[in-house]
Specification:
The protein is mainly α. The protein is 71% helix and 0% strand.
Length: 382
């Protein structure tokens, strides 16, 4: 493939990621600008266009001929700035939103520490998290601010960008893309943990690319399979990430891939067995399966599950896998959103909280890491 074809392919991939991210950001702008103006559609459309144009421009910034001659220094400086902003937002600003995710997580942890099942019909908020999510949240809970969980997610994302992307300026690009999204500030202000949840898996994937060999079963193989299994015990949608990545990683060692996934699934099952033993009926009727499986019809969910295998098999690079995974997660949430909107209307689904648009954040870190700077051989950026 010649250089012109490579540039066009990169432009196409960047365009897909930018449009999907602009849609997610525009949806948040639409929802929250409606509280201040009746021109919310115009404001959201303006944001959409602006984000796409910003993405195109930033993809072409020639860092080698800018005042920042060192790509890595610029990336680390930006990453530090992103983390500092996150810390300031969760420590200085109070959480006063109508989003129930923080209260639900807090209530589940408190019930668990009191020796009660962390799900139940009597709860004020209906939590959807699996057991290991509560374990991951415990340090932030004891620090008195669950918002630190999201700060940790942003830190893991920044570290992933540094580890995976620093050599060509792509990491800087994805961090700028993050700062330009209202979802970045939304997650911190409402103390949500969705971005954190996905960043954990991205960090695991980046670590796996360094230490996981598809040709042998060793300590790293077992340890990473175990950690993936624990992290599956956060949200059901994460099974899509494991399936896609394992298919991508073990396409030439299918048996080892099956062993890896089997270990992860076994660990996941072991995390929920104690709660089934504790109160199987309550776990089934009010637990995370009942909540998370209600978002899509089983047939549709199964088709997305098969799609995870397909994108893992078709992805030739990790950057392509991130793009396809981001698109898949976006498609899952969009389908649920459209089904909700069809049952009512978009105003009810978006403006009046008929649908939790926060779930679109699942796709954000993957789409950001799929960004690639456009460079012209023998010259600067495109």
């Amino acid at each position: 493939m010649n250089s012109t074809s490579l540039i066009m392919l990169s432009l196409k991939k960047n365009g897909i990621a930018a449009i999907l991210l602009a849609f997610v950001g525009g949806l948040f702008v639409l929802k929250y600008s409606a509280r201040a103006t009746e021109l919310q559609l115009f404001v959201a459309a303006s944001y959409f266009v602006g984000y796409v144009l910003l993405s195109i421009w930033v993809c072409g910034v020639d860092l080698k001929h800018s005042i920042f001659s060192n790509d890595r220094a610029l990336l680390i400086l930006t990453a530090v700035a992103v983390v500092v902003v996150a810390v300031l937002l969760v420590t200085l600003l109070p959480e006063e939103s109508r989003v129930g995710r923080l209260p639900a997580l807090n209530e589940s942890i408190e019930r668990l520490l009191r020796g009660q099942l962390p799900w139940g019909a009597s709860m004020q908020n209906r939590p959807s998290g699996f057991p290991f999510l509560f374990v991951l949240a415990l340090p932030s809970y004891y620090l008195g601010n669950l918002g630190f969980l999201e700060v940790l997610g942003i830190l893991l994302f920044a570290l992933s960008a540094i580890k995976y992307n620093y050599t060509s300026g792509n990491g800087w690009l994805c961090l700028i893309g993050l700062l330009a999204l209202p979802t970045f500030y939304y997650e911190l202000l409402v103390r949500s943990e969705l971005f954190f949840n996905m960043s954990v898996f991205i960090f695991l994937i980046v670590v796996s690319e360094r230490y996981l060999s598809p040709s042998k079963i060793d300590l790293w193989f077992a340890a990473l399979a175990l950690v993936f299994g624990l992290c599956l015990s956060t949200r059901l949608i994460t099974i899509m990430i494991l399936v896609a990545y394992a298919t991508y990683k073990f396409r030439r060692s299918i048996l080892k891939g099956l062993i890896f996934v089997s270990i992860s699934l076994l660990i996941f099952v072991l995390t929920i067995v104690p709660f089934l033993w504790w109160d199987a009926r309550a776990f089934v009727l009010q637990g995370p399966f009942s909540v998370q499986m209600s978002y899509l019809p089983p047939t549709v969910a199964f088709l997305f599950f098969l799609s995870a295998f397909f994108i893992g098999w078709k992805s030739l690079t990790l950057r392509a896998l991130f793009l396809f995974l981001g698109t898949l997660l976006f498609g899952i949430v969009l389908t649920s959103f459209l089904l909700t909107s069809a049952a009512s209307n978009y105003v009810s689904a978006v403006i009046h909280d008929g649908f939790d648009i926060g779930y679109f954040i699942f796709s954000v870190p993957f789409l950001l890491l799929s960004f690639e700077r456009i460079t012209i051989p023998g010259g600067g950026a495109a």
